[in-house]
Every structure is written in C-alpha cells, then in structure tokens.
C-alpha cells in the first residue's frame, strides 16, 4: 500500500480532507492534476459554520488575517442580517479562494500531508482489499498508487465519479454567467454591487485595490458544449446587459458558470467516496459551495480515519452519505430558488419585491441566515436531547485545564466527552474508550446555550462531541446520573466498541 487514503484534487475540499485524515492519524497522499496552485478565485467568501470549523482546528486566525468580515450576507442579492448571539463569527468573511487554498496547503504541509502535483487520476480499480489508482503524470509511463480508500475531491467534472459509475442527476443549465477579474476605469464611483436590467444582470465587486470582479448573467441561454470563454465574450456580454463595458481592460482571468444543479446519487461506492463539488454542483448564489465542501471533508475525515485505524466498522462510512447528502440537497434547492429570483422581467421584479418585504421579518431573516450559514444543520440522532445531531455551541467554559470555550477542545480533531457537572459518572461509563475519546471536566459559563433553529437550551450536564463538532449524545441539565447505557451506545456507534484493560 502507498497509503491509507488517496485524495484526488487539491482544491479546498481535498486539502481540508487530507488535513483531517492526518490529524486523525491516517496516512494520506493528495494527487492534483495542476502543476501549481491556481491563482483563480471562484469563491470570495466563507460563512459562519466554516469559520467555526477552522476555529475548531485552531487555524482561524490565519484566515481572519487575510479576509474582511462583511456586515451582511445575501439571498439572491437581498440582504440578510447576522446575529451576534448565534456564533462567535456572525459574519461572512470575504477572502479569495486562492488565499483559502494557499492557507490550507500550508497547513497540510505542516501536518505532513504529501501533495503530488501534475498527477491526474485516469483509472480506478477496486477490490476487496483496496483501490488501485491509475495516474497520468509527467513521466512517460503511467503511474499508479495503491491505497485502502480513494476520495474524489476532483471538482464538478469529477473523473473519480465518472470512472466509478456514480450517477449525477439534476437539472440542466438555463442561463450563462461570465466572470472576470478586470480593471474598470470608467465605473462610476457611486456604483453599488448588483444591477438588474431587462437583458440580465451584472455586478462589479471591488476585490482588491484597482481590481473588480465582474459577473454578467444572461438567461434562457445555456452555453454550447466546448464554447470558449474569452475576455471579448465577457466584454460583449457586459455591453449587452449594462450597455457599456466601463473601459474594461487587463483581465487576470475569465471563466463561466451556469445554474446547472446536480448531485451524486451516492457519496460512497465501496472504497471510493466523493466530496465537495465532485458530489454536488449548483448555481453559486449566496456563496455556499466551498463551505459545503470543507464541511463534507470535516464530516468524512474522522470517520474514514477511524475505519482505517480499525476502530470503527466500515458501516460508519455510510453515515457520511446519510448526513451530508440532505445538506447538499437543500443547497441545490435554495440556489435554484435564488436563480429564479434573479431572472429579468416584471413578474420576477414583483416576486423580488414581495420576497424583500418578507425578509424584513426576523423569522424569515433568521430562517434564511441559518440556511446559508449552515448553523442549523441537524444530523439524524437517536436521542431526544435538543443538542443531539447539532453542532455544539462554542460556549464559554471554566476549566482547571485552562480551556475557555468548547470549540477550543476540538483542536486535535478527537472526540470529547465534556462533563459539565462533575461526578456524573460519565467518566466511568466511558472507560473503554479513553484511548480514543478525551474526557474533559469543566463548568459552563452560561446557564443556557443558544442553539440556532432551536433556541435557548439549558447547558447540559454532559455532552459527547464528535471531532466535527456535532453532538453525539447529551445529558439534560437536571440529569444527576446520565444513562450509562445511552452514552455507551453513542460511543460504540461513533467510535467503535469499547476496549478493556
Ligand atoms: C463564480 C463563483 C463564485 C463562488 N463563490 C463562492 C463563495 O463565495 N463561497 C463558497 O463557499 N463557494 C463559492 N463558489 C463555489 C466554490 O468555488 C466551489 O464549490 C469550490 O471550489 C469546490 O471546491 P472543491 O475542492 O470541491 O473542488 P475544486 O475547487 O474544483 O477543486 C478540484 C481540484 O481537483 C483537481 N482535479 C480535477 N480532476 C482531477 C483528476 N482527475 N486528478 C487529480 N486532480 C484533479 C482540480 O485541478 C482542482 O484543483 C463559487 C463558485 C463560482 C463559480
């Protein structure tokens, strides 16, 4: 074997996954088709839950140093307010995808992840013991790697998905959007963000001093297969939609996207798994794709490492599909709605006005905010405690070990059993798992924890937190002797059977 896991693609998803696998002790190699990191930046921002995930690993400061918090988010260009009580990071962070990838690659290097560039997956063969991955490299002879698992993080046109025969059903493109980072010397100083016109819409966002990101959207015009993307086409499109090219010049890069929305029918086929854009593509409204890919990686990484280590059975990998498929399904749904809301025409103008007037209501704003930030995700859970299945809030702690808040406990990407009342007996119940689960005793600084989409919940007596920050089990505040049976069953489900002695 050349490693436990081969990850195809060194985009945000592949890099994050490789780091998660390394943190959990798996041997991983990333293969990437490109010779060097791209300086193209499709994504321009990350949301609260992804910021929290980076915080959980202790690397958020690196991203905050290069990004700029925004005062509001948006749903199809209609503004959404944030609420400081829901997260320590209640803002979208504007940061270029190229910077995100650089920071993740630096972290991967620190963790000892091997990234092999100019190395493209071109064949896959899986058998009972592992996967053989055929590679096209710079060498004349094709290369190959043998590993126990392969994860395709190789983007929307995923070769891994196609070679594995995983279906990718969904809806076709109904529009064409062109994007470019350019200079716009004639853009009026009072220009703000996005304009709707009868021909479509366009936006010009100041990204870096002197540079704007221009996006034009034209409807009922899906691109032809193989249609080239050029600077001239972007200029022509801007003239069609805006009536002028604002003196557009010096393109750094131009690209195209559409509202095609597709999702892999299954996220796992034997020893091959899919994550990020390889598993789902959609209209990029609201900036959710990269966020979702990073969160796929954080859901999958610890599970796959646990199976590779021999702690958990292979069936744990099926929970990756069960938990993450519905998340992308919802994003495809909300981005289809956002695409519908930007089509030109008096009917959509009226619909937008009605929608905008609804968004004045707190409940509507909150609902959309939770959806875009992914703070409200609840994975299927057996128990009925309102925290179970949800991401654990980053509550303040008082602890003899010096931990001051919950997310800090997750830096090592290990499960944490947090005993908040002391002497509840959870330590004894978890004895068979102390090699895999960190037991922490602390006091909650607050009597109540705010859980998005649920509300205020009394701080629990004890809580079992998975490495991705989701709650596997929780004991109610007034539970003096939390059920050892339920805790033992949650520990077995997520982290494998107990080890004695
Ligand atoms: C205009 C636009 C704006 C966006 N804005 C946002 C935003 O603000 N926020 C957000 O969250 N998302 C945004 N997105 C979406 C985001 O860019 C993607 O969801 C994200 O890049 C997906 O990351 P990934 O790692 O899954 O795939 P990719 O970034 O596509 O990376 C895949 C990698 O795999 C490599 N690869 C491909 N094939 C092979 C192969 N056979 N072998 C080896 N390597 C291979 C590729 O070279 C690439 O490096 C936006 C998208 C667009 C188009």
Shape assignment: globular
Could you name the CATH topology of the largest domain? FAD/NAD(P)-binding domain
Q: Radius of gyration, rounded?
A: 23 Å
Distance between the termini: 31 Å
- Look at the helices and sheets and give the structural class: alpha+beta
Strand content bin: 25-35%
Residues in helix, %: 25-40%
Provide a short characterization of the protein structure.
The chain is of the alpha+beta class.
What can you see in these coordinates?
This protein is an alpha+beta fold and 501 residues long. The protein has three domains: 279 residues, 3-Layer(bba) Sandwich (FAD/NAD(P)-binding domain), CATH 3.50.50; 84 residues, Alpha-Beta Plaits (2-Layer Sandwich); 99 residues, Glutaredoxin, CATH 3.40.30. It is 29% helix and 26% strand. It contains twelve helices and 29 strands. β5 and β6 form a beta hairpin. α1 packs parallel to α4 and α1 packs parallel to α7. It binds flavin-adenine dinucleotide (FAD). The site of flavin-adenine dinucleotide has 33 residues, from α1, β9 and α7.
Provide the descriptors you would attach to this structure in a database record.
FAD/NAD(P)-binding domain, 5-stranded antiparallel beta sheet, 26% strand, Glutaredoxin, binds flavin-adenine dinucleotide, Alpha-Beta Plaits, 501 residues, alpha+beta
Q: Layout of helices and strands, plus pairs?
A:
Blueprint: E1 3-8, H1 12-23, E2 28-31, E3 45-46, H2 48-56, H3 60-64, E4 68-69, E5 73-75, E6 78-80, E7 93-94, H4 97-111, E8 114-116, E9 120-126, E10 131-136, E11 143-152, H5 159-163, E12 170-171, E13 175-183, E14 194-197, E15 200-208, E16 211-219, H6 231-242, E17 249-257, E18 261-263, E19 268-269, E20 272-274, E21 280-281, H7 289-309, H8 318-340, H9 346-358, H10 362-373, E22 397-398, E23 416-419, H11 426-429, E24 438-441, E25 443-444, E26 448-451, E27 455-458, E28 462-465, E29 471-475, H12 484-495
Parallel strand pairs: 1-2, 1-11, 2-8, 11-20, 23-24
Antiparallel strand pairs: 3-7, 4-7, 5-6, 9-10, 10-11, 12-18, 13-16, 13-17, 14-15, 15-16, 18-21, 19-20, 22-25, 23-28, 26-27, 28-29
